[in-house]
Amino acid sequence: MRPEQNAAISTIAIKSGTPFDKIVILANKDEGKWSSFEKYLKKKMAIIGRPSEDIKIYNANISSPIDYPSIAIETEQWLNKLSEQSETLSINLTSGTPAMSTLSVLIGKGKTNIRFVQATPKNELIETNIPIDFGKEYVKSASKSIASKASSMPKSSKAFDGISAKSESMKEVISKAKIIAKSELPTLILGDTGTGKEVMAKAIHNASLRAGKPMRAVNCGAFPESIIESTLFGHVKGAFTGASGDKLGLFEQVDGGTLFLDEVGELTPAIQVKLLRVLQEQEFERLGSNKTLKVDIRVIAATHRNLIEMVEKGDFREDLFYRLAVGIIKLPSLRERKEDITALVEHFTNEINSAGDKHPDYKSKIISEKGIKFINSQPWHGNIRELWNTLNRAFLWSEKQVVTDSDISDAMIVRAKKSEEAEVTLMLGQTIDLNENIELYKKKYILAALKATGNSLTKTKDMLGFTHHQTLKGWMEKLGIEIPK
Prior knowledge:
- The longest helix has 19 residues, at 434-452.
- The protein has helices at 8-15, 34-47, 68-85, 98-108, 134-149, 155-159, 168-181, 197-206, 225-233, 250-253, 269-281, 307-313, 318-324, 341-356, 369-377, 383-397, 405-411, 434-452, 457-464, 469-479; strands spanning 23-27, 55-59, 89-92, 114-119, 125-128, 187-190, 215-219, 258-262, 283-285, 292-294, 298-303, 327-330, 366-367, 402-403.
- Helix 15 packs across helix 17 (405-411).
- By secondary structure, the chain is of the alpha/beta class.
């Protein structure tokens, strides 16, 4: 609408059968453009003879476009206020994120004078009838849930039993995961490599209503584009060289169940478009076919990459990000959940011994107290995966029944350390300008990073660990660094 072309809000305002006396728009960015947009919309309304004075943009005080708690508070406050003031209140469902639309419907359905409207990409107005009585459906569902508790334990409790959670950070994560598991929402699991994202995805699936249905996992970064496309969506005979017959993709194989897309940030733009369509429409075509197939799939995605940064750089579709990030879980690194390490070691020890017991010459082993202390003292940059692999090597190499701290140390893979600066020595009476040396140090590193990145400010920012471009530019200005033109 910035180039003065109709979009959802103006389409609804122009084509509504009954003119609006008041138009309220909620926003939380681009505040500098609000005034010009208000003027544009008022002008459009005045030209066609509709009320044009009471049109205003208000700041929406939300934490993020996908933060349900803050969106719920803001939505409820505005809908309560406007509903009381209005004979009929219309809610636009086209604009905003899925979280905003979802909460608008849930809260709006509780009011008797609210209607829902949408606009198509061709600027057609659609009045939306949502025939569900959420209050009745909730009571019905809750009654069934209470009745089932008498005969079985809650599935969510059982599903998450295998995840160690003595630390507050993991308790909070599992609490959120249990809530997400009960929904049908797409979910995005974030966390460093080795933090257990697939384990969490399986727990969510097993605690969901799809628990009896299949779940499959695929690493999106493990295959080239042509193979990952066929893996996900399938292909028909002759679709490419070597396609000797039809093949079902994972979306068809797990119809009714859950598909776990690990390292979703590695998908190419073309595959991202097809994935977005599945999430939006629950339909796709096999590779080499024009026949549309319908599926009922829940997608859980995971990545260790910063998808927000990728969206800003144009490497990941913004609309796909918001489709995936309806439910978000951030797994802490192992060093952020130290209280869980001892329990994890005990669990892994039992697993290793259980597997080894199948061999007639194997004798179960334990880890000494010093060994446990040593394990707890390590940073575990590779997280749970590094801990698991280290324990397996230590148990394999040790011929004793008690695995010691030395055994654990020998089993660890030593990471290359960054070269340390030469020791600083000063003579009595010598003076130095420490600030000048620090500024020189900063300047050398910024110049080196600019050279390495071809004078790209974005890449230089990332290379030097700055959060914002403005910080880097501020340093450069202070240090007298200019980018060659």
